[in-house]
Amino acid sequence: MTDLPILSLSIWVPIVAGLLVLCTGSDKNASLARWLALAGSIAGFAVTLPLYLDFDFANGGFQFQERLQWVPAFNIYYHLGVDGIAVPLILLTSFTTFIVVLAGWEVIQKRVAQYMASFLIMSGIMIGVFSALDAILYYIFWEAMLIPMFLVIGIWGGPNRVYATIKFFLYTLLGSLLMLVAFIYLYHQSNSFDITEYYRMPLDLHVQVLIFIAFFMAFAVKIPMWPVHTWLPDAHVEAPTGGSVVLAAIALKLGGYSFLRFAMPIAPDASHYLSGVMITLSLIAVVYIALVALVQQDMKKLIAYSSISHMGFVTLGFFLFNPLGLEGAIVQMISHGFISSAMFLSVGVLYDRMHSRQIADYGGVVNTMPTFTAFAVLFAMANAGLPGTSGFVGEFLVILGAVQVNFWYAFLASTTLIFGAAYTLWMIKRVYYGEVTNTHVAALTDINRREFLILGLLAILVLGFGIYPQPITEMTHATVSQLLEHMASSKLPTL
Amino acid sequence: MSNVQSLYIWIPLLPLFAAAIVGLFGRKLPRASAHWITIAGVAAAFSLSVCVFMNALDGHVFNGAVYTWLTSGGSQFEVGFLVDRLTATMMVVVTFVSLMVHIYTIGYMQEDPGYSRFFSYISLFTFSMLMLVMSNNFMQLFFGWEAVGLVSYLLIGFWVKRPTAIYANLKAFLVNRVGDFGFLLGIGMVLYYLGSLDYAAVFSIAPQFADAKVELIPGTEWSLMTVICILLFIGAMGKSAQVPLHVWLPDSMEGPTPISALIHAATMVTAGIFMVARMSPLYELSTTALSFVLVIGAITALFMGFLGIIQNDIKRVVAYSTLSQLGYMTVALGVSAYSVAVFHLMTHAFFKALLFLGAGSVIMGMHHEQDMRNMGALRKYMPITWITSLIGSLALIGTPLFSGFYSKDSIIEAAKFSQIPGSGFAYFAVLAGVFVTAFYSFRMYFLVFHGKEKWMQATHHEHEQHHAHVDEHTHTDHDDSHANDAHEEHHGLGPNDTPHESPWVVTLPLILLAIPSVFIGYFAIEPMLFGSYFHDVIYVDHEAHGVMHILAHHFHGAGAMALHGLTSLPFILAASGVALAWFFYMKHPDIPAAIRARCSLIVYILDNKYGFDSFNEKFFAAGSRFLGGKLWHYGDVKLIDGLLVNGTANLVIRLAGVVRRLQTGLIYHYAFAMIIGVFLLLTFFMKI
């Protein structure tokens, strides 16, 4: 263990780097802004590495804790700490930021400094969400994250970006307000904003249910779960590629992570009580959304719906309350981070060249972009959950976990094998295979070195974690068993 | 670990490395390096497999983990190998056929721009198939299972410009996924109830669950073993193309012929057969599941054979023949004659690969003509292809002394003596199947190698079947399929060309495959079926399902069996099938047309392949799209977004419109409101 405040560094290095990038000012210094942002993202990734290297695998509790008094009057602390669930997500965040900076390199020509800075700052804020152990600190990070994302979509977005940003902002803000109410209630009960304090606090079932619902409103919107998912496809369609990548790879995981950090351990009895509802909503996401994805004409919309369907596996895994389901859900979150990034980046590659996301405008891309097509097919297969790719691991574990709870849960969840393959590969067929359909496709050029590097890195990760997923679950074991133990013991006050 | 055992890991890895090198750098390396590198990899894997096979013959069994893939919930998921005689047999068959196909490909794909890509794929396939057969647990089995499906997808769609090819590969993948859906649920049940995914652990604990019940639908009791076995078998139905999941295999012929031989005849499609044989300790616990397997197999064996009769595309005849033969193997599994199924799997791998590669050689000789009606008399021009194809056909129809005779006759005998429900139908199906097989095989043989030289008047039937096929399926998203047909590689011979024999890289594999097609049955039947070869590998409950004992009782050596076979019913049926084919297609070629005209209903049913394709297309494919469209339109767009989200926003706007009227901007309105407010507050606080 080093004495450095690793978590603070992980949060503030990218934010400071982002501010520095902002200082480069107008687009006259665009090149400087790019290189500075790249350096900042690499530094941001580097400072998170000790979280993995120095992590104590046997310890299921919080590590790397930092605790400073902040607002004494309300017992608010600058309290950070991570467990085996947060660390993989933090690493995913800092890595994705590096990818996003690289992906926007020459694509973004307007307001380069602001674009790069937004992502760096967003990265720090999201790491803050994953590591905050004080409810107010967490809430601030949680809400602050909306601002740079709002700007990214609103400034660099597509033609319908105003509708999309307002929808995105209001949807998520409305959800989180109820969460704030829950925090204030919990503060009144315990006179503390310490999350670990809440874990120990006994609560009546009806109070737990209300708290759970308040959290649910915030997190379900973020994940997003059916039926509060409709902001996501619109946001994705309008967002620039980088925005989509961060949205899919990390922002959605904030919701998933928060279920494990707040809703479930603070209200375990309510979680059990409402698990039927949660599983039903998850399965609706898996089946209904997959069918909806099948008929999408816009590639980004299709991938957005595919994301919702895959996140259905995450919430399904959570509420099975067994280790296979829970660890499967966590692996699914990480893997989806890589695969959805790669899918959105692939659409970005095509969009940069053709300025269309409509499937019908493509056809026969393989003839002009063979290397790119190889990547696209690989990521499509990963999205369809092919064994040997990371996309398989999470779904496999969640399905195995679901069988143990109810055969029909597993039955419905497994339909993703068919529908997931159907919508992904049908898109591949229409976009990439066949004869060249028009002159625009005929004029396409294959990916350049920068694009090759990005997709290649993601391909290595997707295959690597498919062949050897043990490193992820090794980290989560202790935390997961501790969480499940906690969930199994009732928090109802003993009379 | 002994010396041999340390080699195991290299057997799948060498083809994988070869595939990776050629796949990643193939375009930069000289063209010939593609085949040299991959052939070296597969040849090494083949030689090592032979060593492993010899080692297994000595009775050595290896079962061990390579690395722990993942641990979760107290379960270890490992990557590991189980190498016993069943595995070793499969390894030798897979690597041998793969090696033959690699060599053959040098000739067949000579002019193809995707030369190195093709070699990379078939080496990747060899790796995947080896991982499948060498696995010692269900997880890795599933990995191999889906990995071969991936390569199959890539290879069926190898010619990415052809609309029929990219339709067929999507269809193949999705139909296989339907099977895998059941397979994965079966694996989930195994892990939950039997507590492990490791074969050895599962097989040893399974008998304790022979009478276990599960309540899948509340109020109904199901035998656990029946549920598990049927779910696993659904996977096999996908991969081994059993009715009703067979629909992908005929279409898979859109891929290049070498992979039709390797993947869609000799190896991948037999994965389901191999899996059930491997799981014999589970299947023996459920007579219901065995009966299910048996009936599905019998239906496939007979009814897919019928479809072979009316095909005019040379590859499709062989494809339907493969379906039918897979049905035979499945029948063998159903009557608990697992060793017979594996035996037929092996002999079939040789003679069917031979027939496919022979068909490929014919197609090359005819300049990519696949319609048999434009061929004829090729024996004069392609003598090696002719003789080897004749050998393959004789083996296929079960001529005594040929390999196919021993395996197929054993299946028929096993079905005859079996007592399990459905065996009566199965016996009829496999017997009738013999006649059908002989008829379509020799119909093909006579049309291709004998009779008149029909390419001379090359009117070209223009692959109407092909067209019909395209029209039927791709009109939804490929209206331009006709335009594309112009580009297809169905050229046929020009007016002054004559067919020519293929180069030695093509004929050599034919000869090398013809040898085991003739002899392997004679030598292998006694040890494999009645000896101790599969003694520790395949478990049969002889009390309940004792057909192997009866077969052993009737067996008096391979020579005697062949002699007896000459007077047996199957041989008579086969001979009459050949005779009828000769009569129809050599003696009176006008008869088939007359029959076609008379029996239009039957022809209609057969032409439409019993309607499976159109049903799937209309019901499942169009149904899902319809449902998805409605859910999207009414659920997401109208209800959630229209009514709830934007509806709320509109409501706010409307309310705001009302409230806005209060803000008149007139000072005395505000002053008046303030006075009322102050008054109200005052009265409120006064009371307290």
Describe the structure.
- The complex is a heterodimer of chains A (about 500) and B (about 700).
- With about 500 residues, chain A is mainly α.
- Helices cover about 75% and strands about 5% of the residues of chain A.
- The relative contact order of chain A is 0.10.
- The mean pLDDT of chain A is about 90.
- Chain B has about 700 residues and is mainly α.
- In chain B, the strands form two sheets. Chain B has a two-stranded antiparallel ribbon. A two-stranded antiparallel sheet of chain B has the order 3-4.
- In chain B, strand 1 (about 60-70) and strand 2 (about 75-85) form a beta hairpin.
- In chain B, helix 1 packs antiparallel against helix 4, helix 8 (about 225-240) runs antiparallel to helix 11 and helix 14 runs antiparallel to helix 18.
- Chain B is globular and about 120 Å long.
- Chain B starts with 9 loop residues before the first helix and ends with a helix.
- Classify the beta-strand content of chain A into a percent band: under 5%
Give the count of helical stretches of chain B. 28
Ends of chain B: how far apart?
Answer: 92 Å
The chain-level structural class of chain B is mainly alpha
Describe the secondary structure blueprint for this structure:
The complex is a heterodimer of chains A (495) and B (688).
Chain A: H1 6-23, H2 30-53, E1 63-71, E2 76-82, H3 86-103, H4 112-131, H5 135-144, H6 146-156, H7 161-190, H8 195-200, H9 205-222, H10 231-238, H11 241-266, H12 268-273, H13 275-294, H14 299-318, H15 323-354, H16 365-368, H17 370-383, H18 390-405, H19 407-432, H20 439-442, H21 449-467, H22 470-488
Antiparallel strand pairs in A: 1-2
Helix pairs in contact in A: 1-2, 1-4, 2-3, 2-4, 3-4, 3-11, 3-15, 4-5, 4-6, 4-11, 5-7, 6-7, 7-9, 7-10, 9-11, 10-14, 11-14, 11-15, 13-14, 13-19, 14-15, 14-18, 14-19, 15-17, 15-18, 15-21, 15-22, 17-19, 17-21, 18-19, 18-21
Chain B: H1 10-25, H2 31-57, E1 62-72, E2 75-83, H3 85-108, H4 115-134, H5 138-156, H6 163-194, H7 199-205, E3 213-214, E4 222-223, H8 224-239, H9 248-251, H10 257-266, H11 271-278, H12 280-283, H13 287-309, H14 314-334, H15 338-365, H16 383-397, H17 403-417, H18 423-449, H19 464-474, H20 481-485, H21 504-530, H22 547-554, H23 558-565, H24 569-587, H25 591-598, H26 600-607, H27 612-660, H28 667-687
Antiparallel strand pairs in B: 1-2, 3-4
